[in-house]
Amino acid sequence: MATTIESPRAPHTVRRSRGVNWEKWGWIYMRASGVVLLVLIFGHLFVNLLVGDGIKAIDFAFVGGKWSDPFWQVWDTLMLWLAMIHGGNGMRTIVNDYATKAVTRKVLLGAILVAVVAMIVLGTLVVYTFDPCPVGSPADLLPSFCATR
Fold this sequence. Notes:
- This protein starts with about 20 loop residues before the first helix and ends in a 20-residue tail after the last helix.
- The radius of gyration is 22 Å and the shape is elongated.
- Helix 1 crosses helix 3.
- It has helices spanning about 20-50, 60-65, 70-100, 100-130.
- By secondary structure, it is mostly helical.
- It has a single domain (about 25-135), classed as 3 helical TM bundles of succinate and fumarate reductases.
- Keywords: Heme, Iron, Membrane, Metal-binding, Transmembrane, Transmembrane helix.
- This is Succinate dehydrogenase / fumarate reductase membrane anchor subunit.
């Protein structure tokens, strides 16, 4: 009894013989960003959960103190950017594989792009504009490391 495997669907993108092969670079990005994300995420988990008092220490003051250091701002920003682009690229691949109509594919890809860009912009703004010691706040509500103003 012979089993026949159907040929895969033709890709929706037009193949060009010259120019940049974006699918190849997307594939390479997924592998490289995955490796870097493993280091970033496990480093993040190690510092937040195992160093010091562990999970009991994570509160507003912990995050405020952590984000007052430029190293952790860059670390968390890099983790955010890589994770969002990695996830968006994965969703793009799924849409290209399963959306059969061109209009549906374009709408879904546009929605993914808008969501990824919005999350990257908002997340980056939070990391770099976070102020754990806002001016005019009652002293009893501020973290212990804030100087009374």
